[in-house]
């Protein structure tokens, strides 16, 4: 009986081919590694007590099976000349990026708990959106650290050096990151490392393409057929001829599409792999010999952002009384906003190191230009615009553009290295939106040994002491391990020896990166599960699914509806619980919101807390100021269906400050549309 080995790197149809051959009466075995040195290394790995259960079970079985199979291959090597019997071998190649995606899906259930534990997340990630966000954050961090390596991924020492680089950044579980990222090199190195030592021939010496998807190779003891995985359907007749059949068919087996993790992993990989990393992979001889071209300019690639949906309004878009754009609906507006970018954008993650960085004093200008932003960063007296840009409203108003030598010489000297983290405000909404914009970078440094520079956005929080009086600020810093003494407020000119400047994932009134959701998920997990309960209010009624966030009890100067008590009664009739956020602890607010499926309120920063609601929840915004772009950003980030109702009774005037009167009949009319009678 003809003996056949399907020997390849895994996730290239080996199970399906073997089963098809077995049904045709052949003795077919499959293997992913047979080289003697690989089996020895696997034995050493199994002795490591830190190996997780998934890897132990998988590797033990593979070690036994492949040791036996290698003995059979060695028998053919020794006896082929005497017996005239030769082994038949089928091997396959596959596009390396597609291979990695499929390989990760295959091992997702085994590896993901390890990743989750490394990220110190709650072990039960309840929603697909959360899993996508956390997994995206994991890979983004891995790529960020790998970007600092000067050696190619194909280098045999790449994994070790990546591990060392991660360890230097202060991570005790660097092997987890290194092991998963280095798997991208597996297809590129598999034939020289695994195939050639066993069969004394390297398939990388042969050319494959769509037009010529198979190659026949011949050795003293084996006949070998190499196939492009992407063309396997058109090579079935070639396989049949190779093994001596009239025809050959194979079942669909072990498909990635059947795995419960398929959708999650594919959504992560749609936008996570950096362009330079893709180019490095496709420049390898493996891709050049086997006809794989970089997909970067391929028009059929999936969109950069797919979940949740985003949109852009066009200049010539007609005004409508009710306009439905994805998950955003607008009632009673004569004008819709013109956005410069999609609400959600895949923003680059990188950090810049500036020596002798000048950090100008923060807070706003005097009354002659109250909107000008004083705080900024400078290199050699020149503004670093990317680092100093809060968003669309502040980009043109940074003042000054250039810094004089006198200011530099008079600045307070800060020795050593600091991390620039953007802006802090005493205003709840700005603190919630802007302060965490660069927190993604905290996963790539040793937080406990770092110092952090923030610019103040107002005089009220121009000192560290004032900042830590704010409950939200306390939670933000405690959650991510930042202590009070590590913070430097740029309320005066500073000259810092070295500043690390992470890129921002949030730009005010402009756009936000969807992976920023992981920061808010981490805050929610911390405050509800990890932190000691410190502020859950007693005697609260059982959390309701509908909440109205009232502004009635705010101070007299606050912008609020003069007839908010009437609004409250209206929403009570629709089954809403009335709450006053300023009277509740942050922990209680997040606890209530995390269990609600619809919230409502007059526009203001309290509604930004919708980011802590379950995905696909609803929000009703009673607007007195037009459409607040920051609310668009936060609603899109949390995948919240948001209904904007132009609630001002006098539709000719939008109230930016002070009291305003709500149009109760108009609100009621559209409440019936949103949630029914």
Mean pLDDT across the residues is 80
| Proportion of residues in β-strands | 15-25%
Number of helices: 23
End-to-end distance: 76 Å
Q: Mind summarizing the main beta sheet? A: 7 strands, mixed
Strand order of the largest sheet: 6-7-22-21-20-17-19
Question: Strand tally, please?
Answer: 23
Radius of gyration: 30 Å
Summarize the amount of helix as a percent range.
Answer: 25-40%
Low-confidence stretches: 298-324
Summing up helix and strand content along with how strands pair, one would put the structural category as alpha/beta
The gross shape turns out to be elongated
Give a brief rundown of this model:
The protein has 677 residues and is α/β, with parallel strands linked by helices.
Detail the topology: elements first, then pairings.
Layout: E1 3-7, H1 14-23, E2 27-31, H2 36-46, H3 53-83, E3 87-93, H4 96-106, H5 108-118, H6 128-146, H7 158-168, H8 174-182, H9 186-199, E4 214-218, E5 222-228, H10 236-243, H11 262-269, H12 275-282, H13 285-290, E6 322-325, E7 328-331, E8 351-359, E9 377-379, E10 382-383, H14 385-388, H15 405-410, E11 412-424, H16 428-434, E12 452-456, H17 464-467, H18 471-479, E13 487-489, E14 494-502, E15 506-507, E16 511-512, H19 517-530, E17 546-549, E18 560-561, H20 564-573, E19 577-579, H21 586-593, E20 598-602, E21 618-623, H22 629-637, E22 641-646, E23 659-660, H23 664-675
């Amino acid at each position: 009986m003809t003996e056949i080995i399907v020997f390849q790197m895994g996730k290239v149809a080996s199970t399906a081919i073997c089963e098809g051959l077995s049904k045709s009466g052949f003795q077919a075995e499959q293997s992913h590694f047979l080289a003697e040195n690989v089996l020895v290394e696997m034995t050493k790995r199994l002795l490591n007590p830190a190996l997780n259960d998934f890897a132990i079970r998988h590797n033990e079985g593979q070690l036994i099976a492949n040791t036996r199979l290698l003995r059979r291959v060695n028998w053919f090597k020794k006896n082929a000349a005497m017996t005239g019997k030769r082994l038949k071998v089928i091997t396959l190649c596959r596009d390396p990026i597609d291979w990695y995606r499929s390989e990760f899906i295959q091992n997702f259930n085994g590896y993901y708990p390890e990743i989750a534990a490394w990220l110190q997340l709650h072990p039960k990630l309840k929603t697909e959106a959360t899993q996508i966000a956390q997994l995206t954050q994991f890979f983004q961090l891995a790529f960020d650290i790998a970007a600092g390596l000067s050696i190619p991924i194909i280098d045999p020492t790449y994994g070790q050096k990546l591990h060392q680089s991660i360890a230097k950044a202060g991570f005790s579980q660097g092997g987890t990151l290194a092991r998963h990222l280095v798997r991208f090199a597996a297809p590129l190195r598999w034939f020289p490392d695994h195939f050639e030592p066993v069969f004394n021939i390297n398939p990388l010496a042969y050319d494959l393409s769509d037009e010529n998807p198979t190659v026949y190779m011949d050795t003293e003891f084996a006949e070998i057929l190499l196939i492009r995985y992407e063309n396997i359907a058109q090579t079935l007749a070639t396989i049949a001829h190779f093994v001596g059949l009239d025809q050959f068919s194979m079942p669909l087996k072990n498909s990635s599409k059947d795995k419960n993790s398929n959708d999650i992993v594919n959504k992560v990989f749609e936008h996570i792999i950096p362009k330079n990393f893709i180019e490095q992979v496709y420049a390898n001889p493996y891709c050049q010999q086997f006809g794989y071209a970089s997909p970067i300019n391929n028009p059929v690639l999936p969109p950069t952002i797919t979940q949740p949906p985003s949109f852009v309004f066009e200049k010539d878009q007609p005004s409508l009384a009710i306009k439905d754009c994805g998950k955003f609906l607008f009632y009673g507006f004569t004008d819709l906003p013109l956005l410069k970018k999609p609400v959600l954008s895949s923003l680059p993650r990188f950090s810049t190191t500036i020596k002798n960085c000048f950090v100008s004093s923060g807070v706003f200008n005097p009354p002659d230009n109250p909107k000008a932003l004083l705080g900024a960063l400078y290199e050699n007296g020149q503004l670093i615009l990317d680092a100093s840009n809060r968003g669309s409203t502040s980009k043109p108003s940074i003042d000054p553009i250039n810094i004089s030598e006198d200011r530099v010489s008079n600045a307070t000297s800060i020795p050593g290295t600091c991390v620039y983290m953007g802006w802090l405000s005493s205003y709840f909404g700005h603190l919630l939106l802007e302060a965490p914009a660069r927190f993604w970078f905290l996963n790539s440094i040793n937080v406990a040994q770092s110092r952090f520079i923030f610019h103040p956005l107002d005089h009220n929080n121009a000192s560290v002491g004032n900042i830590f009086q704010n409950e939200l600020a306390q939670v933000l810093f405690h959650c991510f391990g930042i202590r009070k003494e590590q913070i430097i407020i740029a309320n005066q000119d500073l000259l810092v020896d070295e500043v690390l400047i992470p890129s921002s994932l949030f730009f005010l009134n402009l756009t936000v990166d969807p992976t920023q959701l992981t920061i808010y998920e981490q805050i929610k997990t911390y405050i509800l599960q990890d932190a000691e309960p410190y502020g859950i209010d007693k005697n609260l009624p059982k959390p309701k699914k509908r909440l109205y966030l009232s502004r009635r009890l705010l101070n007299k100067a606050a912008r609020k509806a003069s007839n908010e008590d009437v609004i409250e009664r209206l929403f009570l009739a629709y089954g809403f619980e009335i709450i006053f956020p300023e009277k509740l602890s942050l922990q209680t607010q997040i606890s209530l919101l995390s269990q609600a499926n619809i919230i409502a309120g007059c526009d203001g920063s309290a509604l930004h807390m919708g980011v802590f609601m379950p995905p696909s929840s609803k929000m009703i915004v009673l607007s007195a100021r037009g459409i607040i772009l920051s609310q668009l950003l936060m609603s899109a980030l949390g995948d919240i269906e948001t209904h904007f109702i132009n609630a001002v009774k006098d539709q000719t005037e939008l109230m930016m400050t002070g009291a305003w009167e709500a149009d109760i009949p108009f609100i009621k009319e559209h409440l019936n549309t949103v949630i029914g009678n």
